[in-house]
Amino acid sequence: MGRLSGKVAIVTGAGRGVGRGIALAFAKEGASLALAEIREAEGRAVAAEIEALGARALFVACDVAQRASADACVAQVVAHFGRLDVLVNNAQRAPLELVPFLQHSDETLALCMAGFLGTVYFMQACHPHLPKPGGRVINLGSAAGYEGLPGQAGYAAAKEAIRAISRSAAREWGREGVTVNVICPFANSPGWREFEQHDPAAARRIAAGRPIPRVGDCEADIGRAALFFASEDSGYVTGHTLAVDGGAAILR
Description:
Number of helices: 9
Number of strands: 7
Strand content: 5-15%
CATH topology: Rossmann fold
Number of domains: 1
Distance between the termini: 36 Å
Helix content: 40-55%
Radius of gyration: 17 Å
Shape: globular
CATH superfamily: NAD(P)-binding Rossmann-like Domain
């Protein structure tokens, strides 16, 4: 019996990177996975990986930034599996290049805020179906927000907005037994690999400068941390932000 046996989890943006890593970690602990992904080929590929592990998987084409799409996704998942226990809000959009604050356009801000809106939409759509007690919500934040990284103002704002609503929801939903927590990861995601190719020397410095001097693995490091928040082990933890980044941030 795995730690998530009999549970059903939705992971948004599960087609690659951190979302894929979390989905695989959950599947190996017995969860059934619903993969909400805008990239069909990638979403179906991860569903096939999960099924090869012997777990159940459902790919759902979804644009998280559209409320109707999020609502339809959740309805499809509940109809298919008959229940919903865990929500992981991972999907996020951001500019491919750093954008100075004074150059942030309406389009840049809208792109960045899509992930925040998706988090809101999925939390609202999933809440009625989550077990009370026992429901779990895991949202993804970023060091870009709490450190205020240059060139990422819009992305940072979106990620801090996600942390803000997570704290509010944690206080509102705690008496129902639904926990809401945040993970801020540093991992070998597609974005990080692109940065490594663009500036290998800087990438090496960033990784080596951490107390644990390496880049996190999307499944083994980030996925296993998410597993704690998804399981019964974290039943008395809510409203918390966990930096899974090799010790780069010591949050107070």
